[in-house]
Amino acid sequence: MRDRFRAGDPSALGEAYDEHARVLYHYAYRVCGDRTAAEDVVSAAFLEAWRCRGRVHADGGSLRPWLLGIATNIMRGAAREARRRDAALARLPERGVLPDFADDVLARMADGEQVRAARAALGRLRRREREVFTLVVWAGLDYAAAGEALGVPVGTVRSRLSRARERLRKLAEAELRAAGAVRGRRGALVRKAGGRGALVRKAGRRRRDGPDGFRGS
Amino acid sequence: MTASISRPPQADADELLRSELAELLPAPPVPELTEDRDRHLRYAVLRTALEDAEERPVRVTRPRQGVRIGWIAAPVIACAVVAGVVVAAPQETPSGSPGRAAVGRSASPDAVRVLSGAALAAAAAPAPDAGAGGYVYVRSLVAYAGRGADGGPGVLPPAHRREVWLPVDGGRPGMLREPGVADTWLGAELPVYEIDHRGAAPRKTTVATAPPSVTNPTHAYVAALPTDPDVLLRLVEDGTRAGGGDADQRAFTAIGTLLAETWAPPKVTAALYEAAARIPGVTVLPSATDAAGREGVAVARTAHGEQTQWIFDRTTSAFLGERTVLTETTSAGRAGTVLGVSAVLVKAAAAAPGEVPEG
Description:
heterodimer; A: 217 residues; mainly alpha; Rna Polymerase Sigma Factor, Chain: A; Arc Repressor Mutant, subunit A; 10 helices; 66% helix; elongated; B: 359 residues; alpha+beta; two-stranded antiparallel sheet; 9 helices; 32% helix; 22% strand; CU044_5270 family protein (chain B); transmembrane (chain B); membrane (chain B); transmembrane helix (chain B); CU044_5270-like (chain B)
């Protein structure tokens, strides 16, 4: 598969798409918080991968870490374009949201709220921590694969993740205090859940399409 | 996972850290890629990638550019939907109608006059003095309307400062600085470590950055743009072919971005204005105000219920800034709602990214 991709076999591109597109899409959606942007990232990542296919080494494991790394880079480089995208946000409802069953729409709104809250919390992390965090925790890469995706040693993945943990813990504690002060506040951006103070309320249906489990090889 | 009986303690610690993080900030649920969108996306990826390989065996840069534009402009589907409903400016020609290029290509006579004036003024303006290895620095004030994901009309926040360092030549990243946000590298190369097999030493490679293009320019690229307006317009149209909706609007918007956030030599700037004057549907607004409160005359183009305006100083014909306004009432707001506004304040040479030129 790797060899065929590298050699420019079109069927290998199709197979790579079938195997990895959804994972890339979920990853990009969680990071961008927007369907259209996520689709753009997915297609840009595959096209970039195809363009650079000569750089894929002949032997190795799954293409997934490499693809996720490319997607990360695209989202990082997208800051310039974000200027336009910010303007485009005002157009969101036109983006193909077709009339639907009411409860489905409600469910979607709840989802949107959770994505927003999660992204707000994510925004409190430094970019390097954030990238490692989303690759390992949200996209399900193991440490070695995340290191491969980002071009950093495994030890760096570890240290960034523990910095992320410190920061998120502090954030969660602050949230708990705030929630204690204003009890029963509705519509809070970040909610506490039971147990250890997760930053985002965990809905029962969260696991529906939760982290895309993957262990790089 | 087969050898999990004797897992080293490190692996356990790693797993513990991961699960703790997952508990602190679990992956938010996101909607599935619908079958329809999936099919569409798969087809678009394969077609673009493979078409490109056939037509241009050497220069395989188009898909990346195309996608970058897709990111900027509204996506194909969205525009197709909107275009079915919206009747835009009366001058609007159906996008992509064949054979249109040769006949009757032009903005309104008033717009041609304003743009010609701007071209004349630009041709006499000082040339950029950014040298090889340096950066072009552009400072502007910008504001873009945002709206909550729960809907409601767009609200324009107060304008904030935006600073960009654009590398003169490729191979080095640019930089974006906005208050309250960490500096962002633009177009940095991503190092990628290839791991050949478990336990192998990682090999460092990089993912090449896209070559400069109309929508991803370096200063050297802008400086070398053709000065023949027809040739330039064709180049802009080629560079913005991907993306949805109205091709003329895409060209107009791309030129606007070049005017706002690059520093082209006088002759190129003049050619950009003259190229814009050849875009059908461009009209004049007697008065518009930029993000810094400077009032001037504007040329504008409307598509899909939105009008993009370029504001010029009345006496000097200098480019002041841009503005985007809703021309129809939608859920994003009433007609007349300002979606975005900018004002170009400084263009200067800088020695290094992050370094603010004096004066």
